[in-house]
Design goal:
By secondary structure, the chain is mainly alpha-helical. Helices cover 91% and strands 0% of the residues. The chain is rod-shaped.
Length: 98
């Protein structure tokens, strides 16, 4: 590997490492907020008087939404795992050149 290539690769990898670290931080915030929203939805649904038809309809829709949102957290966990792997790989490339 030539020094110029190594330097260019290391620079790009270092930049990618920083960008991925920022993306991971933002993804963590999104996942935390999503889980908070799910928790709030379930709490609100549990506190609602289910005697009225509208309340029963709300409860059904809240359950559907909350279950969909929980499924998204699985996708988010996968994205977080892959972003961490990419960040770590970029970090290795950034600091592996002499």
């Amino acid at each position: 590997m030539t020094l110029a290539y190594c330097s260019s690769t290391a620079s790009a990898a270092a930049s990618a490492h920083v960008d991925l670290q920022i993306a991971l931080g933002e993804l963590e915030k999104v996942l935390d907020r999503l889980l908070d929203a799910v928790s709030g939805t379930w709490s609100l649904a549990a506190d609602t008087d289910w005697q009225a038809r509208a309340a029963r309809e709300f409860h059904a829709q809240a359950d559907v939404w909350a279950n969909d949102a929980v499924a998204l957290t699985g996708v988010g966990d996968t994205a977080r795992h892959e972003a961490r792997r990419a960040r770590d790989h970029a970090g290795l490339l950034a600091w592996s050149c002499p």
